[in-house]
Amino acid sequence: MKVLLGVSNRHVHLTEEDYKILFRDEPLGKVKDLVQPGQFASDKKVSLKTEKRTIDGVRLLGPLRKYTQVEISKTDSFALGVDPPVRNSGDLDGSSKITIVGPYGEVTKECCIIANRHLHINREERERLNLVGVDKVTAIVEGEKKTIFENVFIKEDPSFTLELHIDTDDGNGSLAKTGDEIEIIIP
Amino acid sequence: MKVLLGVSNRHVHLTEEDYKILFRDEPLGKVKDLVQPGQFASDKKVSLKTEKRTIDGVRLLGPLRKYTQVEISKTDSFALGVDPPVRNSGDLDGSSKITIVGPYGEVTKECCIIANRHLHINREERERLNLVGVDKVTAIVEGEKKTIFENVFIKEDPSFTLELHIDTDDGNGSLAKTGDEIEIIIP
Q1: By three-state DSSP, how is residue B131 classified?
Q2: How far is B93 from chain A (nearest CA, A)?
C-alpha cells in the first residue's frame, strides 16, 4: 500500500527541565502542526555544539517530552565529529554526547542518535493493513534513483496517523520528499 | 558478486582552459591516487558559488578533462539553491549554472549535475561477470539501514577497474563507506 512520506531534518526534543535551562520562562510557541497529531514545529531553535563544530538553527519540536533527544543524519554526524548509533526514538542507550545551546544556557548530555526509518501507525490501521505481528516493513521509492529501504520499524501508538519517516540522507539519496506517496511492502 | 565501493563527495573536473582562469600557471599536483587508474585527488580546491550560498574547499580531481563539471549531492543542491539533473558524467544537457571560484578568477557555466550511481568496469571484467548487454545493475548495502540501490549504470572503459560509485547521500543514508565490499546483482 501507499503511505504518506515525511522527510525529517535534524531536530531536537527537550524535557521541561532542559527547556527551562535553554529558554527560561519563554513560552513554547507553535510555527506549524506536524502530520502526527499533537506534534508541532515550535518557534524555538537551538545550536548543536561538539568539539569539532557547531550547527545553528536546529528546530525544537513540541510538545516537551519525558526525554531530551537530538536526531541528526549520518551526514551531520561527520560534520559534528560524533558517531551516534541508529536508534528508535526514546532509546538513548549508547547515544552520543552533544551540547544543546539556547539563548540562556546549554545542556550537555548523551542524547544524540540517528533515527531508524520508521512507520507511524495506530492499532486500527495496523489491523486493517495486516501488520499485526510485523515489526519491520520495506519502503520503495520509485524514480531516477529508485531505492528500496529495508528495516523500516513499525511504531504503534493510539495517537499516531499513518506516516513513513526517513531522514534527509535517505530522502535526498532517493530524491524523495515530504508529501510523496511511498509504496510499503511486508518483506 | 561483491565489488569495491567508493563514496564520492562533491568534486570538480576542469578543462585546461578553465583551470588556467582559476589557477593560472600553477602546476596541478597530486595528493592521492584514486582507485580508477590515472585519476587522482589534486592539491587544488575551489569554492562553489550561487546566489544563495558558497561552499568552500571543494576538491579538484585530475587529470584535466575535455569538459568542466561540478558533481554535488542533492543535499548540497538544497544548500546552494540549485536543482541539478541526475546525469552520467560528461552529459551536461540541462545541467545547473554554477560559479567555480579559484584564487585567480572564476568561471560561471551550466555544468552542475548529481551523478548517477555507476559501476566502473572494463571489457574483460564485463565479459567475466556476464554483464555484456546489461546497462544497469542493482547494489545491495547490508546492515542496520539495509538499502537496495536500483539504476546503477554500467560505465565501461578500457582504463577502468571494477568499482561502484555512489554519492554521499546514498552512502550516508545506507551507512556505507569507501572501501566496503558491496553485493551487485543483475535486476
Answers
A1: coil
A2: 16
B170–A167: do the CB atoms touch at under 8 Å?
Answer: no
Complex ipTM? 0.96
Across the strands, what pairs with B97?
Answer: B110
pLDDT tens-digit readout, B69-88: 999 999 999 999 999 999 99
**Cell numbers that stand for A132 in this block:** 499485526
pLDDT tens digit string along B10-61? 999 999 999 999 999 999 999 999 999 999 999 999 999 999 999 999 999 9
Q: Which residues of chain B have a CB within 8 Å of the CB of A145?
A: 86, 116-117, 149-151, 170
Number of neighbouring beta carbons within 10 Å of residue B64: 18
Sign of dihedral through CA atoms A156, A160, A161, A167? negative
How many CB atoms are closer than 10 A to CB A179? 10
Q: What is the pLDDT of residues B96-114, one digit of tens each?
A: 999 999 999 999 999 999 9
What is the DSSP annotation of A129-150? TT-TT--EEEEEE-STT-EEEE
Using alpha carbons only, give the angle A132, A128, A90 rounded to the nearest 5 degrees. Answer: 50
pTM: 0.96
Closest alpha carbon to A137 in A168, A165, A167, A173 = A165
